[in-house]
């Protein structure tokens, strides 16, 4: 990360309040670096995990939601598990991704949220994930039509991909869950 | 013993063979599974990673249904397990916030490896074992979500777990010591960034080889699919098969690992069959 000056005026107090509500105590970081050291994907990050935590403590939402790191994080929870100060770092990543999506920030790794979107689209429609439908939707959205073609074919031939979706009976409840009316969105 | 059963979407799709082997093993050890009626997807990583509300409410719906049945819930999938546990903790903390009148069931959520490694079940597995696995060197691979975060999963030994080793050893296999037992294989990124998945899987498989394993054993359906499908795309080295722990148990129960079962794997998975073939040759001598 380049040298940077951060003024208290630039702190996004709303972000800090949200993290506090979720019990994510970014202020407790004393920069030991265990989170970054254990991250399996850290080599591919633009900000190290510790930098994400520190920038969050400084309320630098804008820098964070534009980062590659929030999208490349695989939610393996190694960082949060090993943090000596019990900072919920994986939950912090969740909050940052959610903010980035809701504020329609162009994602630095566009294919990752497209995958999540396709996955959730399948659940919204059927109540369960329908793999062929989900993969097809992701391929169309991402334009990655040829990637993993051989793998997909192999799985298909081995009958690992179900041809027809299974719809759960009570889809009203699923629709309700996806209605966007939840309490978490008000804050 | 009667347990509620939450298979999850993987076990009704790409990991159908896992679902079937879990059910057969449970029947064999005298455990009745009752599938949670009309269960829905737990949302897996995609939901909680992008939408807290949906990530909580999807697994909560299953818990509210399971509460009526009352039995403990057996969960074979690590991702489902972690999401159900997270939702369970949150729902107990403040049910009214999530529009549930009351929620304080005695029901526990149990991950498959914890279930299998219980002394009583291990005893029954031992009793049903027809053909011990002849010291087959296996690398037990846990991945992430049945262990981390221990505040959610309740795992007691999250850096040095031993449940899969216990079960494998009870079957007569030889769990090897190796370094990457709890490393992430990046399953949640595998479609969007296969390059990263190939790197991580490559490291994990290389570590299993260094440990001297001729097969890997896991309880996670995402790890199983990801590690088999993303290793060595150039095909220069022989791939290591990844067995579900319940497949290993069934092989020892039956003294057989059929061609049909081998065909479910994305890489050559003949080590178990070879082992049994070696045994019978021995006998003929």
Automatic annotation (TrEMBL), chain A:
It comes from the Bacteria. PROSITE patterns: 4FE4S_FER_1, 4FE4S_FER_2. Residues 20-50 form the 4Fe-4S ferredoxin-type domain. It holds the Pfam family Fer4_8. Signal peptide: none annotated. Keywords: 4Fe-4S, Iron, Iron-sulfur, Metal-binding, Oxidoreductase. GO terms for cellular component: plasma membrane. One of its GO terms (molecular function) is oxidoreductase activity. Transmembrane segments: none annotated. PANTHER family: IRON-SULFUR-BINDING OXIDOREDUCTASE FADF-RELATED, IRON-SULFUR-BINDING OXIDOREDUCTASE FADF-RELATED-RELATED. This is Heterodisulfide reductase subunit C. It comes from Desulforhopalus singaporensis.
UniProtKB/TrEMBL annotation, chain B:
It comes from the Bacteria. Keywords: Oxidoreductase. The keyword Oxidoreductase applies. Residues 4-84, 138-227 form the Cysteine-rich domain. Gene3D superfamilies: 1.20.1050.140. The keyword Oxidoreductase applies. GO terms for molecular function: oxidoreductase activity. InterPro entries: Cys_rich_dom, HdrB/HdrD_reductase. PANTHER family: COB--COM HETERODISULFIDE REDUCTASE SUBUNIT B 1 (PTHR42947). This is Heterodisulfide reductase subunit B. It comes from Desulforhopalus singaporensis. The lineage of its organism: Bacteria, Pseudomonadati, Thermodesulfobacteriota, Desulfobulbia, Desulfobulbales.
